[in-house]
What we know:
Elements: E1 13-14, E2 29-30, H1 38-48, H2 51-58, H3 64-88, H4 93-98, E3 100-101, E4 104-105, E5 107-110, E6 115-118, E7 135-136, H5 155-158, E8 163-169, E9 175-181, E10 188-194, E11 200-203, E12 207-209, E13 217-223, E14 231-238, E15 241-242, E16 246-249, E17 258-263, H6 275-284, E18 290-293, H7 316-326, H8 328-331, E19 336-338, H9 350-353, H10 356-361, H11 366-371, H12 376-379, E20 387-391, E21 394-398, H13 417-420, H14 432-446, E22 453-457, E23 463-464, E24 469-470, H15 473-485, E25 490-493, E26 499-504, E27 513-516, H16 524-531, E28 535-539, E29 543-548, E30 553-559, E31 563-570, E32 576-583
Parallel strand pairs: 17-18, 18-19, 21-22, 22-25, 25-27
Antiparallel strand pairs: 1-2, 3-4, 5-6, 5-7, 8-9, 9-13, 10-11, 10-14, 12-13, 14-15, 14-16, 17-30, 20-21, 23-24, 26-27, 26-29, 28-29, 30-31, 31-32
Amino acid sequence: xxxxxxxxxxxxxxxxxxxxxxxxxxxxxxxxxxxxxxxxxxxxxxxxxxxxxxxxxxxxxxxxxxxxxxxxxxxxxxxxxxxxxxxxxxxxxxxxxxxxxxxxxxxxxxxxxxxxxxxxxxxxxxxxxxxxxxxxxxxxxxxxxxxxxxxxxxxxxxxxxxxxxxxxxxxxxxxxxxxxxxxxxxxxxxxxxxxxxxxxxxxxxxxxxxxxxxxxxxxxxxxxxxxxxxxxxxxxxxxxxxxxxxxxxxxxxxxxxxxxxxxxxxxxxxxxxxxxxxxxxxxxxxxxxxxxxxxxxxxxxxxxxxxxxxxxxxxxxxxxxxxxxxxxxxxxxxxxxxxxxxxxxxxxxxxxxxxxxxxxxxxxxxxxxxxxxxxxxxxxxxxxxxxxxxxxxxxxxxxxxxxxxxxxxxxxxxxxxxxxxxxxxxxxxxxxxxxxxxxxxxxxxxxxxxxxxxxxxxxxxxxxxxxxxxxxxxxxxxxxxxxxxxxxxxxxxxxxxxxxxxxxxxxxxxxxxxxxxxxxxxxxxxxxxxxxxxxxxxxxxxxxxxxxxxxxxxxxxxxxxxxxxxxxxxxxxxxxxxxxxxxxxxxxxx
Length: 590
């Protein structure tokens, strides 16, 4: 039996010329990569299929483990091809998962498109294996996370059910609800009921966006005309499929206190060194009003670091989806306010670089701007790139440290640079961002009696501890003079994967910096190993500084009319290891 196939290893199935039967080498090798010629692969496999029995019969006295490997390898290759037409004929999950070919289960049900596919089919949106949570199969060859036909109960509903729910402020009497569905529902409604009242309101969608093939749909609805200080229950109904009831509370019109959870550079899961921070966030949920993240959200662009399979598989969307679902039990009850970071700009994994369609679809902060819906319309900002909002005694200005100012880090190209990066930036006419920023800061400065504190939030800082050394000259040139001119009280940043703070001393007119970028990410451990575990502080003529790399951390920003306090918190222990308090006299009108 000569088992050779006359084509090269150019795809998911790599066929090698078979050695003589006396050899113990595998006849076929699985490479887990997309293939380019299904017809030639089918012809090769199907024409040789009858040889399996002859191989087994001729090798009865050989090592059974080696024979089993040869047979299983052939099974891996041939069964998906034999089953493809059979699987596609099933329109319901149960028959799909129960389907067999040659005595084995060969189909999987993908909730992302509500269709039946052959195990390992490239046509399935549930490929690659990182999308295992959303497929069902009883095949031992499948990587599906759901391994029993019992999971088919409700599978059709799950394809249209709202998931990854998150809130954002939308003005004093508004709230935005964003969520994802795998399939585009025909009808979607957010049903809101005031707590303690029979007053029920229904809101339709503002937008539905599909930005990448097989990536699902991202939806946003703006809940308008809500009462300040009121509490609301809500659920999302898509094609008659309801979520569980969730709850949120609006800020009071005269509220002069705030407690904000602050994180930066926060990745996903164990690989992202992010679990301790996730647990700390859960512990702080009841005592904080909303979460603010200073850029680098989930690190989907570093997904190729999450496991060796993602070096070749396209995992960007898989990691982003898992991250958003992971934090949903905070974000569906309390707003999740985001600032743009460099890791939002594009996909630059090896798999993405070789897949032009996905790479192009994800360029220029596309996923970031599709998944979130910040209050740019209410504040004159642009998308999620820059905007502002009020909460209690604080006016927050979320700035853009990445694009749309002279020599911005991603002025023309994304994070991978001009060689590997895709075109980026230019979200508004030249100069518009800085004109908006100055106008917003000027207006906030005139409103100090109502909101005494002005806090800016952005990704890249331009001063670092220890000793206040300079970095990011273009970011400083664009922002620092405006911050000083209009008396910004604190700048909260990330980008550095640790905790730092700098407080101006003497004649230094600079703005206090808090860098809270140590929540944990794929790059965090390498950064800590490079710097070492450090806890140092000191003073220069211009700065009082603290530099802390001991572990992952989060923070809280608490405010009253007279005090603004940032607390840096060790994620594992909950220890408050640094506190910054700014004070001013109360001159407040409500």
